[in-house]
Amino acid sequence: MTEQIDKALAREYEAGFVSDVESETFEPGLDENVIRRISEMKGEPEWMLEWRLSAFREWLEMEEPEWALVDYPKIDFQSISYYSAPKSMKDKPKSLDEVDPELLRTYEKLGIPLIEQQMLAGIAVDAVFDSVSVVTTFREKLEEAGVIFCPISEALHKYPDLVKKYIGSVVPKKDNYYAALNCAVFTDGSFVYIPKGTRCPMELSTYFRINEQNTGQFERTLIIADEGSHVSYLEGCTAPQRDENQLHAAVVELVAMDNAEIKYSTVQNWYPGDENGKGGIYNFVTKRGICHTNAKISWTQVETGSSVTWKYPSCILKGDNSVGEFYSVALTRGRQQADTGTKMIHIGKNTKSTIISKGISAGRSNNSYRGLVRMNPGAEGARNFTQCDSLLIGDQCGAHTFPYVESRNPSAIIEHEATTSKVSDEQMFLCRQRGLDPEKAVSMIVNGFCKEVFKELPMEFAVEAGKLLEISLEGSVG
Amino acid sequence: MSNTKSLLTIKDLHASVEEKQIIKGLDLNIKPGEVHAIMGPNGAGKSTLGYVLSGRDGYTVDSGSVTLDGEDLLEMETEDRARAGLFLAFQYPVEIPGVSNLEFLKASVDAQRQARGEDAITSADFLKEAKAACKQVNLPVAFLKRGVNEGFSGGEKKRNELMQMLLLKPKLCILDETDSGLDIDALQVVAEGVNSQRSADRSFIVVTHYQRLLDYIKPDFVHVLSDGKIVKSGDASLALELEAQGYAWLQKEPAEDELEG
Ligand SMILES: Nc1ncnc2c1ncn2[C@@H]1O[C@H](COP(=O)(O)OP(=O)(O)O)[C@@H](O)[C@H]1O
Ligand SMILES: [Mg+2]
């Protein structure tokens, strides 16, 4: 059966096409000059450039982390281009009519129509193509509610004080190797501000697309939910099928002020590389949120793409009674490697965190959960519940769980449950005996395994995620 | 012998599991509408026969032939046998966590209808049928929402198998000890479920240890399976005889202690 399922997992990557757009791309290489040029292209204020340069200097002193259970050749940072943008974006199109139709077609093909009439009602989209934001939809409607949703490059001009106050406040410049690199060279990403007491009237979403070859994507997202506000944000991503590995090193910072709530969902479908591990995206991402009093941050991720994933969306539960949640599905197949999990740092009293992680490994892939739960001395009455389930498909893959627990408050309660199961021959037989073909059987069993996480996703995304797993498991299991 | 065509014809079947021969020359002929009971001691190969007929991986046919409706059953994939109308109610139903019973049943029915070129059934119509099936097997409707067999009691699992049979409307139903572990009320539910499905174009193989099920489901034939072969066949009265005397007298070399009493 193993062999048959492996065959089923070999599938086409539907988002693997390349768009034919003329781009302005920097020569590969990284030095202070490149950073100055990026800052200049974006017309940034001086402080931003200084911030980037200081991060770069820190980065030069840092070592690439090696503790994750992933194995990939050393990255040559001088062989990567740090900026690429469609030429048509140079004059900053004022409206959709001025946007290169090829760009719009790209998003349409990916199922993200940017023409307002065709859009999914209720979702505003910021479309980021390589290093620039192409379009942000429904902006007027959001402005009416006082919500700011724009490219971060634009926010630097329009709302410099907000950006300056919060950028780097959750993920410090030298937090880690890739975060420092991102600080130095980030190009675009989304900026969100939800005013006090406001419930964001629509889902906000950013869709990241890497198109250009040999280019890294370094996006930066900053979401600030002011007191008592509420926002749900979705993130999607894809890249063409290429033989070379490409680097994606993003930083996402979330700030949930008192009584605010941020729900952040990701469906990550970067190109995973081929059967033998050739090509694919290196996805090295730092995501972290801070919760003030009574605030709540909920991370939900469905990770099916990338050749290597290194990602730990985390919550700093600073305020009393704040809540952090992490719901994750990570599917690896072929030669994919994922080392993902979360960190829940309990600082305030009666803080609560929940971690539900579902790892599915198939083929010859490696899938690790790595999670830290820390109870600080002041975290009176704090609670964590962690559940890590691994599902193995076949017997050549690996599933690992690395839970780290640091409790410095005796009143804190930490619960951890872990299971490992297989798609069993008996389950497959039951399904087939009822007339289901083996692909449908596998995808149904896997979907069932992920149910607790999928139910956390916004509706449209839950359907999307289910389909994504189905496609991922498509083939001929015979 | 009437000249009705046979639904299932098994000829000199030899089959093994992990290189160990379990079915050792088995013949069986089932016509549409007939109910055949198969009895026999533990380890005789009753479950194995069900698995071999439904094409479970790991169960190898060494020789012999099986046809269903004149088609070579052994050539077909597991799912194609199901789509051709073969249904197995499992002795030990397995759980599929997180996949709701309803979702599972709908997918099964859809797959079978599609394979037969029939129109898809609407969700609303299916739900109606599924609720009716629940009622018939005496399971609360809430079971449709629960994961397949997830946390079900032994009896609930068996009734759930029966519910699947009601919805899939197979031509040949193999019930593998569906009565084991059931109290008398549940047993009656199972028997009524089967009886309600008896028709001129549906046949049953009922594997059981107990005469009591056969009080409710009147079989046309009773066979005794022992050591991979049918060692005796008869009508319903054979079951009564077995009940009184056990299997030992039928086995070729009965063990000493089994002959006593
Ligand atoms: N997977 C298996 N591997 C090895 N032997 C098996 C396997 N399944 C069944 N058997 C053996 O086959 C014989 C028949 O088993 P089974 O068909 O379950 O009998 P019954 O249902 O009549 O009690 C038994 O001796 C059993 O141990
Ligand atoms: Mg048995």
3D structure, described in words:
The complex is a heterodimer of chains A (478) and B (261). By secondary structure, chain A is of the alpha/beta class. Chain A has one domain (2-472). In chain A, 23% of the residues lie in helices and 35% in strands. Chain A contains 11 helices and 23 strands. Chain A has helices at residues 2-9, 32-41, 46-61, 101-109, 139-144, 152-158, 160-166, 177-185, 425-433, 438-454, 459-472; strands at 23-25, 84-86, 123-129, 132-136, 148-151, 190-194, 203-209, 220-225, 230-238, 245-248, 251-256, 261-268, 280-291, 296-303, 308-311, 314-317, 323-332, 337-346, 352-361, 366-375, 383-392, 398-407, 413-422. In chain A, strands 5, 6, 8, 10, 11, 13, 15, 16, 18, 20 and 22 form an 11-stranded mixed β-sheet that branches. Chain A has a 10-stranded mixed β-sheet with strand order 4-3-7-9-12-14-17-19-21-23, covered by helices on one side. A two-stranded antiparallel sheet of chain A has the order 1-2. In chain A, a hairpin with a 2-residue loop joins β3 (123-129) and β4 (132-136). Chain A is globular and about 60 Å long. In chain A, 58% of the residues are buried. Helix content of chain B is 36%, strand content 27%. In chain B, β4 (59-68) and β5 (71-72) form a beta hairpin. The N and C termini of chain B lie far apart (38 Å). The longest helix of chain B is centred in the middle third of the chain and has 15 residues, at 101-115. Chain B has helices spanning 46-54, 78-83, 101-115, 123-136, 154-168, 184-197, 211-216, 236-245, 256-259; strands spanning 8-17, 20-30, 35-39, 59-68, 71-72, 86-89, 96-100, 147-148, 172-176, 203-207, 221-226, 229-234. With 261 residues, chain B is α/β, with parallel strands linked by helices. In chain B, the strands form 3 sheets. Chain B has a 6-stranded mixed β-sheet with strand order 6-9-10-3-11-12, sandwiched between helices. Chain B has a domain at 8-94 and 169-260: Rossmann fold (3-Layer(aba) Sandwich). At the A-B interface, α9 and α10 of A face α2, β7, α3 and β8 of B. Magnesium ion binds at residues 46-47, 91, 176-177 of chain B.
